[in-house]
Amino acid sequence: MNALHLKKGSSRKSAYNLRSTLGDAIETHTLAILVDNEVGVLARVIGLFSGRGYNIESLTVAETNHTEGLSRITVVTTGTPSIIEQIKSQLGRLVPVHDVHDLTVEGPSVERELAMIKVVGKGDNRVEALRTSEVFRANVVDSTLESFVFELTGTPEKIDAFVELMRPLGLIDVARTGVAAISRGG
């Protein structure tokens, strides 16, 4: 079966998978983009990604400096090393962009994500869900006789692991904020 023809029910192939067969490894990078906090800036940045077929794994944005009118967009993206370089270069040329940092290559950084995970269950599954939440230091933010909503902050990998453990215990919903990241040290 070729990569463009898929059987019903099979997973979708992306252009990145096709590129990786050519010898370039697919990498995940976290980019911190400092932009003007004004109408349409986020749309322009996202338009760059969608217009060129670049993938966004995670996206967060918030104002970081009210007096100077600046916001920080954190994007987790994937691609070959040359694609990542193209993304950074093209972002740097956008008018509302002040700075682009690739936190993945610039040194140590801290990444965190917030997730709310809803689990429905009774009996042993309910008890096991509570035990597992303690191990992961998840907080119970809502509880009924049949369900819990857990709040968990951590790396994306930590959240993924918690979600996978909750699946057999009655996981029914997950809401995630996306990655917020910042470089370590001075």
From TrEMBL:
Entry similarity comment: Belongs to the acetolactate synthase small subunit family.
Class of the enzyme per the UniProt entry, highest EC level: transferase
PROSITE patterns documented for this protein: ACT
InterPro entries in alphabetical order: Acetalactate_synth_ssu, Acetolactate_synth/TF_NikR_C, Acetolactate_synth_ssu_C, ACT-like_dom_sf, ACT_dom, AHAS_ACT, AHAS_small-like_ACT
Biological pathway: Amino-acid biosynthesis; L-isoleucine biosynthesis; L-isoleucine from 2-oxobutanoate: step 1/4; Amino-acid biosynthesis; L-valine biosynthesis; L-valine from pyruvate: step 1/4
Reactions catalysed, as given in the entry: 2 pyruvate + H(+) = (2S)-2-acetolactate + CO2
Domain ACT: residue ranges: 30-105
Gene3D superfamilies documented for this protein: 3.30.70.260, ACT-like. Chain A, domain 2
Organism the protein comes from: Amylibacter marinus
Keyword Nuclease found: no
Enzyme Commission number: 2.2.1.6
Quaternary structure note: Dimer of large and small chains.
Keyword annotations: Amino-acid biosynthesis, Branched-chain amino acid biosynthesis, Transferase
NCBIfam families: acolac_sm (TIGR00119), PRK11895.1 (NF008864)
Name this polypeptide is given: Acetolactate synthase small subunit
Known role: Catalyzes the conversion of 2 pyruvate molecules into acetolactate in the first common step of the biosynthetic pathway of the branched-amino acids such as leucine, isoleucine, and valine.
